[in-house]
Every structure is written in C-alpha cells, then in structure tokens.
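Q: Could you predict the 3D structure of Class II aldolase/adducin family protein?
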Amino acid sequence: MTQDSINQDISKMTIGADKFKIPMPPQFDDLKSQQLYEKQRLAASFRVFSLKGFDEGLAGHISQRDCIDEDTFWVNPLAMHFSKIKASDLVRVDHSGKIVEGNFAINNAAFAIHSRIHAARPDVKAIAHAHTTFGRAFSSLGQLLKPISQDACLFYENHGLFEEFTGVVAELDEGDQIARALGDYTAVILQNHGLLTVGKSVDATVATFCSMEACCQSQLLAQAAGDVKLIDHEVALKTRQANGADIVTWGNFQPIYQVIENQDDSFLE
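A: Sure. Here are the predicted structure tokens for Class II aldolase/adducin family protein:
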C-alpha cells in the first residue's frame, strides 16, 4: 500500500478523515520490529479463526511471508489448537521444506499449498485456508460466488475454482495446481475441500476469508429460497473496487482484532 493510494481510498470512504484519527497500517523503522508485529498479527489471526469456529482437527493454516527473508514464511505448528497459538509458537519454513526457525513440526499440506502460492505470487504476503462449514458445503457445488450482495461483489471476477479434488494435498505439484487456479485473484474455491484467500497483509487475508465464508452461507441460503437477483456487471465491478481497496480489506480486520485482544492478549507472547 502506498501512502497516496491509501489517502485516496480514505477520502472516498470516510467523513472527517482530514480532521479526525482513523486506523492506519503501522510504519516501521526496522525490519525486526516489523517481523515481530507481523508474527503477532498472524498469531491473532488464529485466535480469530478459533472464535469463528474455523478450527477442524489438524486442518486449516494461515501463513505470513517473512519480511526479512522473503523466501521463507511463518505458519502454525502442527496439532496446536488455534485458540492457544502465540507468536513464539510460530514456525518459519523455506520453500524447500526446511524449518529454519521454531520448535514444532508443521502440517505437510500447509507446506505443499502455501509454499507454492508464495513462490508463484511475490505480491502475496499472507494466505489463509480452512475447512469451514459453509465453505465446504459451497465448494461441493463446483460453482463460483455470484454478485448477490455488496459483500459478495468483493469476489466478483476475483476468485477462481480448483475443480479437481485429489485427496489430502501432499505433493508440491498439487500446490502448483492450486496456485494456477488462484491465478492473480484474491481467493480460490477448492472443490469438495474448502476456501483459500490471499492478501497483502495477514489482516486483509483473514478478513477476506471471513467475508468469503459468510458469502458462501448467504448464497446457499438465497439459492435454497429461490432464484437470486444479480447485481449488474458494471455496478459489481465498481463495488469490488471499493470493497477491495487495500485500506478497506486491512481495516475490516481491526474490529475483530480488538475483540481478540480484549479477550486474551497472550497471542502477543
């Protein structure tokens, strides 16, 4: 996010931005401070997934590209409940699968998927994937989300569909296939599997994932009730441009972060 683009997006979507304080992504004087901050936000993201009920046994993972060594990324340790994860528990792994920092093993599927997407998309700083209730249900339909609401417009012509379920992802070539289905989009539906989102920060990535899960629920309900009315193509694109602005996707995470921090800030440790 450049400061000019942030200022332009803020001016379009707020009243009083020129006089009153609004949330803004932090700026850092050194990379070590940035690294610690991003690890803490990643740990908080697992607490959010836990609060939302997105934990499912060993399944589910969120990663954050390391800001110092960008060929490595941080991810959750194997078999640790999302509600218990702290910044100090996170594991850093390189694209060859070598654990370079941390004290725990990691999920092989997490490595196979996240390493290939991080390698294919240098612009992506974070990736989120989980086997959520409505994401799983929707993924079985083999279809994309439709522009049936303002929130769903975020994904209009902005998500892909990985149409082949090959079992538990274990091989790097399967991760490559998912990366190709994702393309340049913000999200991909993994058929008969679940949802995956990416972003320029872990805040944006997780907020987008939560929104996608909710949009899956909304479309399932709407389609069960009858025929849906779609938002016009041009309006959907315009709405996506507003909803998908970097400052907006980042900002969507801030209210839920406040809840998590107020409940239990041990993730900072």
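Q: Anything worth pointing out?
A: The chain has one domain: 29-268.
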